[in-house]
Amino acid sequence: VQLQASGGGLVQAGGSLRLSCVVSGNIYRVNTMGWYRQAPGKQRESVALVTSDGVTNYADSVKGRFTISRDNAKNAVYLQMNSLKPEDTAVYYCHAAGWEYSGPNRQTSGNYWGQGTQVTVSS
Prior knowledge:
Mean pLDDT: 96
Number of strands: 11
Strand content: over 45%
Structural class: mainly beta
Largest sheet: 7 strands, mixed
Low-confidence stretches: none
């Protein structure tokens, strides 16, 4: 199972970016999908999550500015980031919890991570 993230970049404060992440490979079912971020010298933190039913959860620091969405048919998750601030600068990782095919009529649960995409917000 692979997660391919894209959409990071350099933007001025107040600007917007949209991150995308697609799950591919031997995936059977994707449950919760989400975005995490890790700034230099800090621990990785949850930014936004969305369940397979569309229920969302956001970190307090991004509420009202970021919107997470998903396309179940494409096994894709998106993060629309508006009103970006310098403190949003980090490497952003997509995550998926789900099940992959592990043999005839067998599935194994797992947690899968993308490779990370850099988001830099200049002041």
